[in-house]
Amino acid sequence: MKLTLAQIRKSAYSEPFAFDEMVNVSELEAMNNDIREINPVRVQGQCFLQGEQIIVSFKISGKMILPCARTLVDVDYPFEIKVDEVFTTSSYYDEEEEIHPIDGEVLDLNPYIKENILLEVPFRVFAEDTSGQDAAPSQGAGWELVSEKPVEETIDPRFKKLESLFEDKKEDK
Known about the structure:
Blueprint: E1 2-4, H1 5-12, E2 17-23, E3 37-38, E4 41-50, E5 53-67, E6 74-88, E7 99-101, E8 106-108, H2 110-120, E9 139-140, E10 143-144, H3 160-172
Parallel strand pairs: 6-7
Antiparallel strand pairs: 1-8, 2-4, 3-5, 4-5, 5-6, 9-10
């Protein structure tokens, strides 16, 4: 999503420059993260001009598909992120502050959109319905899931005769 500085300057003096676009961020799927699929996200916001600084306040909303932490099935994860970024056209800016320089006449928001989406990915998500055809497999090539069965208490046959002594004492009482 690219905005030209001329376009922002033209309308930002009288009122904030507003934008609302769908942005394709599907290359996040190829990165080494948990995002299995991400649809185009909606980016809507405003640009404010303040001297040589451009303040961009926008909201990113969309849906990504992540793996369940228990079963690895696909989980829909809707998100909505509110972001404020400050850009400057001046060559003199403080690098310690979070002000991003603009090279040329185009403000490219795509890297900031992708960065904020990656920061929004949770460490783990859980599927609500784990029973179904998409559930985790219970067997595969060379392995099978075995659950522990309760162990019945059995008496050692060598001590079987002693059991009758306990029964006699219970009857005496």
